[in-house]
User: Fold these one by one.
Assistant:
Number 1:
Amino acid sequence: MSVPTPAQPAGDADLQAAFAATLVDEWARCGVAHAVVCPGSRSTPLALALVAHPGMEVHVRLDERSAGFTALGIGLASGRPAVVVTTSGTAAAELHPAVVEADLSGVPLLVCTADRPPELRDVGAAQTIDQTHLFGRSPRWFADPGVPDGASRGSWRSLAARAVADTTAHPYGPGPVHLNLPFREPLLGDPGRGGGVEGGRSGRGPWHVVAPGIVAPTEGVLSLLVDSAGIRPGVRGLLVAGAGCGSPAAVLALSRALRWPVFADPRSGVRLDEPGVIGAADGILRSGRFASAHVPECIIRLGGPWASKVVNGFVSAVGAGGTNVVLDPYGRWSDPQRTTSTFVRSDPTSFCLDLAGHLLDRHPPDAAADGEGPRARQGEADWWHRWCRAEARAWAAITAELSGGTERSGDGGPLTEPALAYRLFSRVPSEATLVVSSSMPVRDVEAFAAPRSRPPRVLSNRGANGIDGVVSTALGVAIGAPGPVVALVGDLAFLHDVSALVGSEGSDIPLIVVVADNGGGGIFSFLDPAAALDAATFDQLFGTPQSPDVAAVAAGFGWPVDDVDGGADPAGLVEALDRRLAGGGSSVIRVRLPCRSENVAVHHLLNAAIVDAIDAEEPAQQGRGS
């Protein structure tokens, strides 16, 4: 927290207060409704203006890193930026991880760092660092307007409106904007005496409006894709849908028009119980026999990539001998394997609907629906149906294995990490949001969350793919989302972001944090060091088991806690989840699970069961895509 420095020259506190009040009023006109504020002295004018505005809901967080991710979560859930405010110095630097994630995930975020005035920079003043372009190339826009004065009054609303516009409508897509705002002492002023809030547009509209820059594909582009790239019925193709793929209905319309199956990441919203939707792609493609016999000639990637290395490897391999199309509304270069043959910049929903209509005009359903007719290649129907049959066999194997062979619902056996992902996804209400941590939870949900008719929305920080700030992100999602929020996190991710629990105890924010507790960093047990290193060295550097008890930590911060033994009382998860959903508010459910080495064995057995089920009906030898 800043300490006043009497030797510094006095500034116009009232003018600074009017400046801050004008910014906040303009942000509210632009649709900003939430601000996350960290305690600090230098940011006093802006903090007071935010609290005073009736259209702004203010959330106070002690830890700046947690505050950044809380604001990120609000933007992730709502599509509108939240303002996050810090004082000067290292407090501002603590926001960097959230800014990076907002950049790479395309999440709107308005970062406001208070700063010392120019005369206190580079002279050893306390709590002063170089905050100019502090976050490098991550922000969509950076501005340091200087200490407010009368000459700059006419620019205040423009500054505020542009900042919001660039978080949502920048040519590179949504992302963070950084305003570095220097204030001079004294910091307490009266906006009325400073000339009041600067006048805005009539009707309380925003000062600037930026028309959307995302375009629909032209007929020329559609014809080029059909004629040159081979995107048409009769071609053995796949759609791969990830987060940001557009409307699920539009994706399914294109899938039906092409008669191509669609790999549906849970974050895509397309993991629906519909023909042609492939949710078990990770398990299916572990069958080398099936994968080698079903190499597609064309793949269209819609939205972000899957977490699965198996799926991503299969998708990228098509680029060498087939057509690999990447669709992105902002033209971002998403091609880590450098195998993409065609990039398309277009709104994904418009692309899917327009291409589906274009195809149906050129290839009527009666000519292609069953793989017959002059335009359809022999075997088209087999291509579609073989993927559908593999999907059915995979889920039969998964549910049987997870229920211990006693039933087909997957709900009867002990809780393992795959079983936890399976049951949580099936149980979370359709109107809820499921926030999934990186590392093992996102992979388990991706591999073992069965399609359902009305799945919950699934969100995850997959820009930088880290566990940083996951509980804080979930807290922000719970603030910005319309329904309850359930978060699935590992024990290390939970402890890594434990400061998120401070100040939220006893709150009415509808957030249930489900902690998968396996005693350390589970994902590392699947990687090479687990086999190459001795057990002690591996645990020291990678497994990193922690001594704090997750349930005791949560209770110590004042959060209601349910402690579920996944082996002895697997039904306790559903009972606790239903009770907490009915009661509302914030709580933690700690689920004790098998140790990390047992978790590896469980995954191997489960994947082997899927492969056995696929191979049982798959011919031993088939030609490419036959």
Number 2:
Amino acid sequence: AGAMRRGHLTGLRPLLRVAMRQDLPNIMPWVVLISALSASSVLAYSWVFPDPAERNELSLTVSANPALSLIFGPARDLMTAEGFNSWRAGMLGAFFAGLMAILIVVRNSRADEDSGQAELLASGVMSRPTRLAVAVFMAALAAVLLGVMSTIVTVVVGGNPGDTTMLAATFTSSALMWAAVAAVAAQIGSDSRSASTLAIGVMGTLFVARGYVDAGDAPEWAVWLTPFGWLEQVQPATENDPNPLLLSLAFTLAMLALAFALQSRRDFGMGLIPPRRGPAHGGWVARPFGLAIRLNRGSIIAWTLAFAVLGVVFGVLATSVGEVIASNPNIARALAAGAVSQADLTFAFLATLLSLVGIIAGVYGVQVMMRVPAEESSERMDQLLAGSLARSRYLAGFAVIAFVGPAIAMMLGGLIIGAVAAASNAGISTVDVFVQSLATIPAVWTLTALCLAVVGAVPRVRIIGWLGLVAAFALTILGPLFNLWDWILSVSPFWHVPNVTSVEPDWTGLMWISAISAVLITVGFVGFRRRDLM
């Protein structure tokens, strides 16, 4: 708190003004994306679900699929546009707002130390806490801007002002909380990359924990164990209770106090977790593939552990989901009539979870491929390619990791999910779940191949790699709810993954997306060989 007093923040105003001007192009896409997520929910609701019968069918569909609660939280009221918006945009908007805040804080605090820019600024008239304070203030301004824009845009398209304001307040609160967590992570990580990984990892873990509580058979009080649970308890469009936001504010202030205390005690350019020294001799690291592994070693370890944890969590969730599904009156009648079995419904739920796991694996692959333009823009690639190293060999090192790493993670996750689910005698076979995870891998590779194509051929539009993941998530998870045409749903590679337990699985779709992946890989390698470096 003392570090935030005016006298201790010399140089705050000019640095904040310059930093906001420079970083605004990076901030606005997040604000627009999350605002559009809220506004589109209100717009789409009256178009897709115009009468009460269709809205009631939506409620039944959502209540019958616990996987949707895992992602979006509980659906408290799907008979109104505001209630639908609160369910569809609430947790996703809070997650994206937190991600935005983490990237802002790390980019404008720790990343400047890694690049040497912070040292140049520190040589002027500036106090030690100023740079971190600027990063936090930028995230706070972005959070407020997000809340205001989201409210205005959603109200303009027909949203209720009170309900919309309360939903937007959860976005702002999420951004503030995770900005504070990122400020702490920036003091702990050995560099900006590890700081971002730490903060995003904590946020992702707590998001999954919240999803487990919502989708499983956990006690009601468990929702208060995570910050996302606090935001969920605001219950926009139903209760509109602002009291949980006070808990979010207290958490933010506590994390900021810890962040400034840690910053005052750490060495400049170093984190509380010291970086490891490089090897004394090149060895295998001196080869293209070895270098790619060395650069991505932390990510490989972190992602592998994450998928093992996801396997356990989703496997345990599958053991209780059978009772949750059977408790639904409509499904219970179908079970009683013998139309389906509980094991079939549980496996369908697991197939949906594996699609979600596949999308997460796609993030893994895209992240590895995005390291290529990062190395290129930092000019470290130039020194390697100036010798006898061929461009194709350099790119191949990253590509192998981007394809093999997620595939191994998918198999590990599928094996653990299947083993845990089968151990509960839920009628699920470990082999079936593992084979389903294998069938999902070609869809993951398609997303990675898309990123490889744009990174290799036109890196200035590499954001397409991330947009591919967003589109796959929207079409795979939300597309069926909106009754979209098959030709639209087929844009997602996961739409082509068959249910391996069906009588005659159709493998044609996987053959097509595999062919598309091969074309995209070829485009990436040919483009990388022929284009100029950035």
Number 3:
Amino acid sequence: MNSPKFWFSILAAVLFLGCCFTARAQSTFGSISGTVKDASGAAIAGAQVTLTSTATGAVETFSTDQNGSYSFVNVNPGEYTVDVDRTGFKRFKRASIDVQVQQSARIDAVLEVGAETQTVEVTAETPLIQTDNASLGQVVDERKTNETPLNGRNVFNLITLSPAAIAQGGSGGSQVGQNPFSWGNYQVGGSFGNESAEYVDGQPVNIGYINLPILIPDQDAISEFKVQYNNLGPEWGRFAGGVVNLSTKGGSNAFHGVAYEYLRNKVLNSRPYFSAINPPYVQNQFGGTFGGPVIKNKTFFFFAYDGYRQRASAVVTTTVPTVGERSGSFPADVPIYDPLSISAACVGNSTAANCGRTQFANNTIPTGSINPAALIELKFLPPPTNSAETNNFSSAAPSGGNTNQYVARVDQNLTSTQHIFTRYNFFNLLDLPTDPFGTGLCADRCAETYQTNAAVIGYSNSLRPNLLLSINLSGSRFHYLRSPKNSSFDLTQYGWPASYNAAIPSAGRSPFTPCFTPQDQTVTCSQGQSFITDHDTQWALSPNLTWIKGRHTM
């Protein structure tokens, strides 16, 4: 197994996979490296360095080389202890080492001459400084991630804790009712909005559909994340601004769980200053997490659920045809002319006064001159709620939506050198339509549904103390549907041939909407009848082979 042909085969396989797939070595791993010396500053070769995970008890070992150097790569974010042993020296121990996402921490040890049964324990030291690369970024740790108050618990809002990130329109608060392109609408590292890349456990979550992220992770399922915005390594791509690298929680040797319920409603909310009433509003967000061991020091699980329900109502005031206009009778200050009465003087001369047209008697369009298609359109426009000519319709239009998200993760320590984990996310979002007319002509857009299935498997193996292999395989499926309430409309009602129905998919076949400008920009002149459907399937494979040779890590 240790023959040169074996190692050549491993390297060839990794290079082949990297060429044949979308291969990128992105991950949430950190690393710990350093040197071991005696009190005189001489390097100590052959010292046994042990790295132990506080949460799972997983252990890795490394023997220092002739330069006294050691290095642990592919280290999952979390708390660790480093122990150093060498015959003739006191044991060195440093506990509570917090390894963060994409952090290269350095822990140097100085051994004192003495018995091995004696231990020098470092309990306070200067903060860890990353000296192995020049990348710039901001880590948002678990406490900030889980305890920072967020309206709607949108964890992406914490991106702005980085000094290099600025939120753009629609990115704040809950994703319910927002345009999906706003989910990742942040300027990072001086880029334009929505030009960064988001990764969860090394899985890319941006898709080709305007670079939108296909899910917003559950706040309580994220252990920490890092916003990287400058001098990123060559393994990163597909972004113009920065990278947001999130790591989900895993189980540990102790059982942990939380449950929560957040409630907002109009009873608890103050009345808006310029409003005579307190508009209806109800918002519930609830869920919980639970994780722990299946087999101590070996198998661990973690599960999280988050649900969100929002119901609101707002008064919509707009303009619709008056009772007289619906029957063809218009007010005197709006003269209505017979379009068939144009004179020859107007041909090529549109500046002629009224073009010799004849005004309808009593400013009323005869019933026989009204197009039957226009009468079909009037079915979707309600009668006015007052006698005014403009702003003559008001109604309380309900809105809101639901989200559900499930996260499941399993970690397995196969051996002392092999670790594997798998994580699955299910995310769905329903935006309810705002239909102030009650006829299916929605304000802006009708119902929208989003659904995401995302899974990742990560495997790491210390083939030798100085040769490490990691493979990250992920896949996701995203579906987006915007559909009008008046879909499957029968176009023959306009007098068109039945063949037109077959030419347009039923989900996108809806009545036309007349646009009354500038009287009504809220409903009829919006995209309320628009139809969009999108399916995105994405696979990513990231193999990574790390070779440590002396002071060099390749």
